[in-house]
Amino acid sequence: MTLDLFDDDDGARQAVETLAEGAVVLRGFARADGPYLMAGIEAVTGSAPFRQMQTPGGRTMSAAMSCCGPLGWVTDRRGYRYQPTDPLNDQPWPAMPGAFRGLAVRAAEAAGYPGFAPDACLINRYQPGARMGLHQDRDEQDLSQPIVSVSLGLPMVFQFGGARRQDPVIRVPLAHGDVVVWGGVSRLWYHGVLTLRPGDHPLTGDCRYNLTFRKAR
Ligand code: MD3
Ligand code: FE
After folding, report:
1. What percent of the chain has pLDDT over 70?
2. What integer pLDDT is reported at residue 3 of this predicted model?
3. Which end of the chain, N or C, is more open, meaning fewer C-beta atoms within 10 Å of its C-beta?
4. Probe ligand 1: pick from 147, 148, 186, max atoms within 8 Å of CB?
5. What local confidence, expressed as pLDDT, does residue 13 receive?
6. Could you report the per-residue pLDDT of 69-86, keeping only the tens digit for each?
7. Which residue owns the Cα nearest ligand 1 atom 16?
8. Which atom of ligand 1 is nearest to 174's Cα?
9. Of all protein residues, whose CA lies closest to atom 19 belonging to ligand 1?
């Protein structure tokens, strides 16, 4: 369904798609910023390297993660939480690069959330074989604030269900530069990512990165 239009990098008018109530896809919205975002990922992970975290149940996540901004999301045997420091070195997470914050704020605004002020950015790196099972994002305090997600590099298939784990899922392909803003009722819906297939992307090589911008507190 078409809600609205935005101007993409080349000045072309793009449809804003709604995936579900509150979930808005901005196809290619981040494409022009790709190289700046990639440079930001390299800068952040130079100080807070990618690592595969443990779930509270003791499994190792197949996606590798890092964070930037005042708060970072972590999981270990003690549970899921946001914290101001990187558990690998007990130092504050790296600052959120200006290009990251600017893009997230513009995307949120295009989707109807002016004044989005993310305090956490989770960076996920998927290499071939990595996936993310169906889950909800509910560790944030203010669920009225959306989550903005940015896909970079290899394409993947996103799974989007409903409010309950058993709800039927739809599969949505997400490609390089696609941005999705998850607000409204979809904010708490189950979602996940199917296994990444091998490939080679001019910007990211053999992987896909996903940035998620959150207002955790
Ligand atoms: C729908 N990441 O980091 S992005 C996550 O591709 C996460 O790395 C996936 O799920 C990834 O938590 C999916 C799309 C996404 C992110 C957050 C959501 C969809 C969402 C929060 C609520 C509903
Ligand atoms: Fe999630």
Report:
1. 98
2. 56
3. N
4. 147
5. 76
6. 999 999 999 999 999 999
7. 149
8. 6
9. 191
**In this predicted structure, what is the pLDDT of residue 211?**
99
Which residues approach ligand 1 with their CB closer than 6 A? Answer: 122, 124, 132, 137, 147, 149, 180, 182, 186-187, 189, 191, 193, 210, 212
DSSP letter for each residue of the chain: -EEEEEE-TTS-EEEEEEEETTEEEETTTTGGGHHHHHHHHHHHHHHS--B-PBPTTSPBPSSEEEEESSBEEEEETTEEEEESEETTTTEEPPPPPHHHHHHHHHHHHHTT-TT----EEEEEEE-TT--EEEE-----S-TTS-EEEEEEES-EEEEE--SSTTS--EEEEE-TT-EEEE-GGGGG--EEEPPPPP--BTTTBT-EEEEEEE---
Higher-pLDDT residue of 161 and 3 is: 161
Domain that holds residue 49: 2-214
Ligand nearest the Cα atom of residue 153: 1
User: Which tens digit of pLDDT belongs to each residue from 167-185?
Assistant: 999 999 999 999 999 999 9
* Total number of domains in the chain: 1
In this prediction, residues 46-60 reach a mean pLDDT of 98
- pLDDT at residue 55 is higher than 90: yes
Which residue minimizes the CA distance to atom 4 of ligand 1? 149
